[in-house]
């Protein structure tokens, strides 16, 4: 099955107590919007702002475990499941195999930011993609006041 690659475009607050992570498909033709609850959005926003969190330490521990397996964190992988729910995993590559480690979308995206991992998704995400008119995929857009954003969650 073919995969699509995504880049992180931004994190938008919602008045309903969640945030929306915006991913641009590469090449920039469509966007994927992923709804994150406050517990996932806050650590991700902190990672985007360069502020370490408890989840950052989790990423360090995961990285140390992967190194002991003589492997590396390869990428984040997304897929759509029943009910248009998005599941995420971090793929670990060793000399012998690829290991898919399921985790919450927030944790997976925070690891992607902290470790500069590429983000891929399978074609099951196609129905969730929206056409985009944006022309720049290389800039991550955060709300103007990161403190205000974090406190809004």
Topology of this protein?
Elements: E1 3-13, E2 18-26, E3 30-37, H1 38-48, H2 54-68, E4 72-81, E5 85-93, E6 98-103, H3 105-115, E7 119-122, E8 130-131, H4 146-152
Parallel strand pairs: 4-7
Antiparallel strand pairs: 1-2, 1-7, 2-3, 3-8, 4-5, 5-6
Helix pairs in contact: 1-3
Account of the 3D structure:
It is a single chain. The protein is an alpha+beta fold and 153 residues long. The chain is 29% helix and 39% strand. The chain has helices at 38-48, 54-68, 105-115, 146-152, and strands at 3-13, 18-26, 30-37, 72-81, 85-93, 98-103, 119-122, 130-131. Strand 2 (18-26) and strand 3 (30-37) form a beta hairpin. It is globular and about 45 Å long. The N and C termini lie far apart (37 Å).
């Amino acid at each position: 099955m073919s995969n699509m690659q995504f880049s992180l475009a931004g994190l938008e607050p919602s008045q309903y107590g969640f945030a929306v992570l915006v991913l641009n498909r590469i090449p920039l033709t469509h966007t994927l919007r992923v709804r994150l609850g406050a517990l996932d959005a806050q650590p991700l926003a902190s990672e985007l702002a360069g502020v370490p969190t408890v989840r950052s330490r989790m990423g360090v521990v995961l990285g140390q475990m992967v190194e002991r397996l003589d492997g590396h964190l390869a990428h984040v992988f997304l897929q759509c499941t029943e009910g248009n729910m998005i599941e995420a995993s971090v793929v670990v590559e060793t000399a012998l195999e690829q290991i898919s480690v399921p985790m919450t979308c927030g944790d997976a995206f925070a690891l992607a930011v902290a470790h500069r991992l590429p983000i891929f998704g399978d074609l099951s995400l196609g129905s969730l993609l929206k056409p985009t008119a944006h022309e720049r995929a290389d800039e991550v857009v955060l709300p103007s006041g990161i403190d205000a954003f974090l406190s809004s969650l």
